[in-house]
Design goal:
homodimer, 504 residues, Alpha-Beta Plaits, 6-stranded mixed β-sheet, 18 helices
Chain lengths: 504, 504
């Protein structure tokens, strides 16, 4: 089944629909869910009603305790684990007699910071809508117990998708498993983090301080949005990241563009030339040695990548694009390569705010996404060396008059990010088993050797556990933005999926 | 004398100090001024105390009426001239029996918009300081009548330099001329505009509606800062201007730089490449036909330019520059060439405000300074054609989904400015006479064929009168910024100069 899927996307679709019938736990969960939709939504709404911004300690504690008691209500011993100054991790554990392996389910219960004014309804007062806001979906009451919810309806609330959905899916799957008397085969651990959206400042410390507690054979990161094709996505790695801020200088005060234009160096133009020199017109990065040391994809990874559905046309339409940067390569392929992206650039003022000046400085913020084999610091070094090669004197603090007077071109470069890529081999027996299990529950999958984004891999780095990302939220869930939402069918599919993985 | 000056800057300095003795009116004005410094400052302070932002009608009217009565007090018939919706021009006229020519003195009594919070003392409460604020100059009382003011002291107030200083210098010179019984040889007209800092929206209309009233043989624009060398500056022209705003597009919403980086076109990088393609590393503009049609400098203009003191080293030190754009050419030379300047550029956000996105668009605001022979619209057309040549589909209104989807690269370009250059020939008899008169009063001059900046030449365009700019304010007067100030010696020199020009 699996080989068939990798080699030909077409047969995978068929295999999927058969396979979905094949996982007993998933089927049982589906049936149980259909009889308890209102109860599941009630519990989800109560969890979504507790504000969960990482910096708000009291709220965070309420979330953690609520989830702890939700686990214990289901017979799962749970506790809060932390280090000084950190938001607690909710830890739960099911010890299965005779089990020889341990599956760790990770999610995070904190949500991205927000501006409530931007939301259509308050972010912590969850509502059900009979469609997306973009399609004029109206707020509707929760359906009466015993009736089915339209699966295309959506729940609007902060963290409805990112990342309380997997927590509710796990809890519902546990209920279904218990109600059906299904047996587990593995030990199960739950690890629900409380400050992921704040950049996980303490998560690695918490793991390091409790290595035995968090140990396991596979770490399922239940986070991120699904694939745009609607197929179940499994992601085996991520891109790392290295970031720099670059500021280049003109005159130390803004000068009149009439009285000094053509004479005083214009830092906006200098920055434009510098940035332009970093990439060719096809998106290839021109920094010396940028691509050195990259670990190539394995044959299995290449085959998986070749089977990823081509979403380019649909996405180009959605994002109003008339071209893509690395064409004819497709999105999935391009995400396997490192990138250099300008997050922003600024100099002087534009439009109605512009004035007749030569600006004093120009700044760009850059992120470079790294693939396996690239080091964040070494990559930043290569960028800095490249800037030097363009004639810049590079400093790591704001340059004063003397430095600026004594060098034709000065760049102040600071490093802002640093994270290595990870890639869990798809060939590992545990990887293969996760794939088989997911396909048996959800049918055709999309298997990405790596995400394009950066998902900190504390499990791999601290504990050495293979990490596989298992998303359930809809790809258009507005995560990190206002009006975050979850499509009901994604929650239902997530419950099937968690039931299958819990009984793996 | 004049030939000597043009051919060798060194002899000009000596010639100047002798010549300053040579102009009787200038000498008389100096003597008269030394006996009336306090009275001159009192009158100046009363004029500076009336707020003069062009949009504040009541204030503007008070300024106009005050200047009108200041002229009439000196026996100069004056009136306010306007068109509907415009701030009035204060017009005054001295008819000299037997005179065969008319000299028009132009200045403006409105001041640049300001933010009072940025000022060290309120902008419309003039104060005298015993030095610049940068050198810890303290506020000091006005000296007692009959005592001399330290000429290095400064008056701080909006319009102290730009542009009420010439008005007060003219009024004081008139007093000195009357007190000494000096005779005028020309008819004199005074034209004091009230909305120059608002872009002179009505000045050409006022001139066109009153051509006879404003007619004359030479138009002396008493505005702009002096030369940094301290020598008296005369400017015979300006650079014109043509401006565009360019916006280029990526995805219509900001996209996650991890999930889409390398695939979604980055508009910041696109704009960087576009801007970088517009100029070479030595500042030469690469837009096709950009330099076509330029009227070259005459031999006299070239000689004048060659005699302009080289201020590059001093200015580089002052502005913290380690290089200049068009080196080894000097500032004065470079200002005779057209320029392309990026006033500002913006895309996404930088530094602490940056987020992990591919921005949705990127904008640059550009001004191009034009020299004689270049047309503002044709120059903007050339830029637009150049952008097209780089593969962009160019639109003149914000592009929607269809346009953006159907073209690989889309640029929205709007035109924002348009003004031709002017250059009054230095060889005209009246030009030569103005130069001789100024040198007889002030010694060595700096003669610029053109300013680098744009000084609307309504006199030339509407009335066909040769226009010569005669600045008196110190070059470091902070005009258009906060803490605008006038060096006392510049005012005293201005009175000498105006006395000489009034009796020319």
């Amino acid at each position: 089944m699996r080989r068939c899927l990798i080699l030909a996307g077409l047969c995978a679709a068929f295999a999927g629909s058969v396979a979905a019938q094949g996982n007993g736990a998933a089927l049982a969960a589906r049936q149980w869910r259909q009889n308890h939709e209102r109860a599941i939504l009630d519990e989800f709404f109560s969890l979504l009603s507790v504000p969960n911004i990482a910096r708000d300690e009291t709220d965070i504690q309420r979330n953690a305790e609520m989830i702890e008691s939700m686990l214990e209500k289901r017979g799962v011993p749970a506790k809060l684990v932390s280090v000084p100054g950190a938001n607690p991790v909710v830890f739960g554990e099911i010890k299965t007699p005779g089990a020889t392996r341990t599956i760790v389910f990770y999610a995070h219960y904190d949500g991205a910071p927000l501006d409530p004014k931007a939301w259509s309804t308050p972010p912590f007062q969850p509502v059900l809508r009979n469609g997306t806001i973009g399609n004029d979906g109206a707020v509707v009451p929760l359906p009466a117990p015993g009736t089915l919810v339209n699966p295309e309806w959506r729940i609007y609330a902060r963290s409805s998708g990112d990342d309380k959905a997997p927590i509710i899916a796990i809890l519902a799957a546990l209920d279904a498993i218990r109600a059906d008397g299904l047996r587990m085969k593995s030990n199960i651990k739950f690890v629900f983090e409380g400050e992921e959206e704040a950049g996980s400042p303490n998560f690695a410390k918490i793991l390091a301080a409790n290595k035995g507690l968090f140990a396991g054979d596979v770490w399922l990161t239940c986070d991120m949005p699904s694939h745009q094709s609607g197929r179940q996505l499994l992601v085996f790695g991520d891109r790392g990241i290295s970031g720099v801020d670059i500021t280049v200088y003109g005159p130390h005060v803004e000068l009149h563009s009439g009285h000094y234009g053509n004479w005083a160096p214009n830092p906006a133009m200098m920055l434009a030339k510098l940035l332009a020199s970093m990439k060719d017109d096809n998106g290839r990065v021109l920094i010396d040695h940028f691509y050195d040391g990259i670990v190539p994809l394995s044959e299995t990874e290449k085959q998986a990548l070749a089977a990823v559905p081509d979403m380019d046309a649909q996405l180009m339409r959605e994002f109003w694009l008339g071209s893509t940067e690395g064409a004819p390569k497709h999105l999935a392929e391009l995400l396997m390569l490192p990138s250099l992206n300008v997050r922003g650039m600024s100099s002087g003022r534009t439009g109605l705010q512009a004035s007749n000046v030569i600006p004093s400085s120009a700044t760009a913020t850059i992120d470079m996404r790294l693939v396996k084999g690239m080091d964040p610091d070494a990559t930043a070094d290569r960028l800095i060396n490249f800037v030097r090669k363009q004639g810049y004197f590079v400093v790591d603090s704001e340059p004063g008059a003397d430095v600026r007077r004594s060098h034709p071109k000065v760049a102040w470069i600071t490093r802002s990010l640093g994270e290595k890529a990870f890639r869990t081999p798809m060939d590992l027996p545990i990887s293969q088993e996760v794939i088989r299990t997911v396909e048996s529950a959800r049918g055709a999958t999309v298997l990405m050797p790596s995400s394009g984004a950066t998902v900190p891999d504390a499990a791999g780095e601290v504990l050495g556990i293979p990490n596989i990302v298992v998303p359930i939220a809809n790809f258009d869930d507005n995560q990190h933005s206002f009006d975050e939402n979850l499509r009901i069918q994604n929650l239902w599919d997530g419950i099937d999926l968690m039931a299958a993985l819990l009984t793996m």
